């Protein structure tokens, strides 16, 4: 059976960006007609559905506006890509994907972003769409939290072995709830020490210094089947 590597995006494959938050606020403002006055204090590890629903409710708008905000977000992210939007890949990210693919493993996504936003972010950071298996990827634009997102994996992948690679404790907790092994990389908002408090099989500083440890751990999981 094929090993499926379920990569997070923000903080794992690309660096977090304060500029990246602007498009969410613009979509929110366009749909609601007012700028938000209250904000999410720690969005790391949350899904788009979770963040935007909370933002709507914090600012007195019904959660039923989520679909409209997501549609506007998709339209605005596409325009960003067409006007030279740039994000930055983490060091070692592209090489880690190539090495994993070279071993016959499937690179897929498990991300809080929606499919369109995921494509735009990854493309803007220099990744190619065909670096990933989009059919067996999982997107959180309509998931109320990351636990819901990981619960979608088993019905699709069944008994096929999988592993989640992420950069936040929330990634680890969600992996635990779905009984999926977790590997942590400290390329996001959390340190190696903080991530060692999760259930991660291995925690690495980045995908250069830690690439062998990451690939070795995945190889062990693949052998177990």
From TrEMBL:
<keyword id="KW-0378">Hydrolase</keyword>
<dbReference type="GO" id="GO:0006281">
    <property type="term" value="P:DNA repair"/>
</dbReference>
<dbReference type="Pfam" id="PF13242">
    <property type="entry name" value="Hydrolase_like"/>
</dbReference>
<dbReference type="GO" id="GO:0005829">
    <property type="term" value="C:cytosol"/>
</dbReference>
<protein>
    <submittedName>
        <fullName>Phosphoglycolate phosphatase-like HAD superfamily hydrolase</fullName>
    </submittedName>
</protein>
<dbReference type="InterPro" id="IPR036412">
    <property type="entry name" value="HAD-like_sf"/>
</dbReference>
<dbReference type="InterPro" id="IPR023198">
    <property type="entry name" value="PGP-like_dom2"/>
</dbReference>
<dbReference type="InterPro" id="IPR050155">
    <property type="entry name" value="HAD-like_hydrolase_sf"/>
</dbReference>
<dbReference type="GO" id="GO:0008967">
    <property type="term" value="F:phosphoglycolate phosphatase activity"/>
</dbReference>
<dbReference type="InterPro" id="IPR023214">
    <property type="entry name" value="HAD_sf"/>
</dbReference>
């Amino acid at each position: 059976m094929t090993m499926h590597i379920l990569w997070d995006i923000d903080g794992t494959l690309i660096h977090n960006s304060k500029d990246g938050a602007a498009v969410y606020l613009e979509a929110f403002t366009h749909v609601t007609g007012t700028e938000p006055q209250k904000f999410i204090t720690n969005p790391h590890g949350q899904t788009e559905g979770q963040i935007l629903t909370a933002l709507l409710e914090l600012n007195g708008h019904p959660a039923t506006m989520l679909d409209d905000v997501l549609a506007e977000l998709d339209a605005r992210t596409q325009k960003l890509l067409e006007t030279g939007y740039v994000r930055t890949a983490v060091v070692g990210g592209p090489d880690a994907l190539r090495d994993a693919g070279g071993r016959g493993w499937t690179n897929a996504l498990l991300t809080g972003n929606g499919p369109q936003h995921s494509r735009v972010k990854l493309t803007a950071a220099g990744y190619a769409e065909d670096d990933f298996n989009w059919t067996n990827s999982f997107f959180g634009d309509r998931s109320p939290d990351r636990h819901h997102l990981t619960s979608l994996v088993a019905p699709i992948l069944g008994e096929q072995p999988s592993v989640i690679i992420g950069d936040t404790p929330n990634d680890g907790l969600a992996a635990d709830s779905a009984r999926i092994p977790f590997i942590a990389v400290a390329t996001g908002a959390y340190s190696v020490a903080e991530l060692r408090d999760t259930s991660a099989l291995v925690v690495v500083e980045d995908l250069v210094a830690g690439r062998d440890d990451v690939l070795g751990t995945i190889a062990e999981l693949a052998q177990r089947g």
